[in-house]
Amino acid sequence: MREIEAARITAAVKQITMEAGVRLEPDILDGLVKARARETSGLAKNILDLLLANAGIADQENIPVCQDTGVAVVFIELGQDVHINGDLEEAVQLGIQAGYAEGYLRKSVCDPITRVNTGTNTPAVIHTELVPGEQMKISMLPKGCGSENMSGLTMLPPSAGLAGMKDFVVRQVVNAGPNPCPPLLVGVGMGGTFEKAALLAKKALIRPLGAANPRQDVAALEEEILTRINEQGQGVQGLGGNNTALAVHIDLFPSHIASLPVAVNIQCHAHRHKEIVL
Amino acid sequence: MSLVSNTPAMLDHLREIEIPFAAGVVESLQAGELISLSGTLFTGRDQTHRRMTALLDEGAELPVDLAGQLLYYVGPSPARPGQVIGAAGPTTSYRMDVYTPRLLELGLKATMGKGARSLPVREAMVRNKAIYLAAFGGAGALLSKCIVAAEVVAFADAGPEALFKFIVERFPAVVINDVHGRDYYEMVKADRDLSR
User: Fold this and answer.
1) What ipTM does the predicted assembly reach?
2) In chain A, at which residue ranges do the beta strands (DSSP E only) sit?
3) Which residues does chain A have within 8 Å of residue B158's beta carbon, measured at their own beta carbons?
C-alpha cells in the first residue's frame, strides 16, 4: 500500500488548474494547425490564424486563452492500493479554489436558483474511479459552458440503430451552429444508461485530440461522423468552411435490450485539459 | 497597432469604425462586413441584463444611458497586476435575447457577442435601426489586447457579470445583422445550400 498526503493532492490540482486555465496543450494546437492546412474558406483560414495567434498571446503573456475558464471537471483514477492521508474531496476542492484565485482565472460557478456566484469556482464536479495499482491520475477539464449548453442526450429506441445514433450526433452539432465556438471536439457516449452515456461523452473529451477508439469499427465510425459533420459546412465560428469539428471521440458501454442512450458533449476549440500522475 | 508578430493579415484590412457611432454609420454597415471598433462601449451578460431589467420594471433609471451605445456580451477573466483586463472574448448571445428588444427600444444601437439571435430580437433591430455584431469566440487573450481601459460602472458584486465600460482600439468584429434585416449566418447557410 502507498500513502499519499491530501496536501500533495491539493498542490497537484492547483498546479494543473493554473496551467490548464491559460494554455492550450500540444494536441489541440496541432489540431488547429492541421485544420488550417485543410481549410478551404479564405475567411476561415484567417480566423484559424487569429485563433493560433490568440494561443500564442495566451502563452507569452499568461492570459487565459478564453475568458470562460470553465466549471472545473476533475476525473480521478485512484489506484486501489493507495491510502490517502486526509479528505480527498476537500483536497481537490481546495486545489481548485487556490488555482482559480492565484491563476487569475474567472470564477463562473453560481447557485442554480439564486444565481449568486460562489466566488471560488468551487465546487468542482469530481468523478472518481477505482483502478488497480498504487498510482493516482488526476485529469483537469475546465469546461466552458457556451459549448456545454449545446450538448444533449437522447434515449433512442433500439430500432433506431446505428443510423439513428449517427443522425443524432450530426444533428446535435449542426443545430448548435456558431454558438459553441467551432471548430469543435465532439464527445459521444453510446449505450449504457442515462447517466453512463453522459459520463462516457464527457470522459471522451480528455482523450488526446484525434486519438482513435481502440475498437476498429468505432474508430471508423468516428471518422465517418467527423466527415459528415464537416460536410455540412458550418465551419469555423459558423462563418462557413470545412472545419466545423476537429475530432469526434466515441466511447461505448453495453445497454439494456430495451434501451439505446446516446449523449453528445460538445467542446469548443479552446479545449483545455491537463493531467498529472501521483 | 500590431498585436503580435504572427497576427493574421485580415486584421490590417478591416473597415475602421468609431464607437459610439456617428450619424449614419450604423445604417451603412452591411451583413458580412469585417470591421474594427475603436472608442467606448459597455459590457453585460446574463446577470447584468437580469438586473437592468429589474431596474426598468421598478421604473428606475439604468446605471448608464444605453442610447446610441454598443453593448458587448462578455464576462472577462480578472486582470493580473499591470494588465488592463484578463481574457475578454464574447459569450453566446441567445441567452440575452429575452432582454434585448426592451434595450433596443431604449435606443441601444448595437449588441456584440457570438451566435445567432432570435426572431423577436431581429425584428426589434429592424424597427430600431440597430445592428448585431459577432466578435471572435475563444480569442479572449488576443481580444484583451484591443482593450486599453476598463472600469466597473455598476453591479460590482456580480464579479465577471458586472457592467464594465471599456475603451477599445481596433477591436475586430463581423456584422451579422444589419438594419435591413439581413443575417450573415443565414446568408452563409444559403450560399452553402446553393453550392450543393
Assistant:
1) 0.95
2) 2-5, 71-79, 82-85, 125-131, 136-143, 152-156, 184-191, 245-253, 260-267, 274-277
3) 117
